[in-house]
Design brief:
five-stranded antiparallel sheet; 5 strands; about 35% helix; alpha+beta; about 150 residues
Length: about 150
Amino acid sequence: MHRGQNGSAPDFLAQFQGGFAGVLHWHQLDALWARLRASADRAWYVYAVGEVPPERTATAAELDRFLTEVDHLLHTEHHHDYCGVVYVDQTDAPGMVKIFDPNHLGSSCGSSGQRVLPGWVLSRVAPVDLEAAVPPPRARRRWWQSIFHR
């Protein structure tokens, strides 16, 4: 596991909000899955956003099953000749992978003002509850406050 300057694990949110590269082509996705499966320790947290974040890394069998199932889901439900719904922090040495649900895309980059969280996150760092940690867009917060904070 990568360590921060003070010896602690890097901050999940800082990594989550950092730079990511899109996996545009299906063959690039196949290569990414192969890299994850070939990881020396295969110590990956598999986090379904909206569920309780996992406290332990997935076993090799759990990781393999997840990758097989999510690959099938993406190929079945993302009806395009390109991938474009998977993002990785470092293509050569991944530490975090964001996988967006093809049926709930919205604007993953936030350009529409409505940021959509990924459906799943694979991480070397223990995840936190993203729904609680990433605040809703300001327009939504203003709407919420207008109802309850008069």
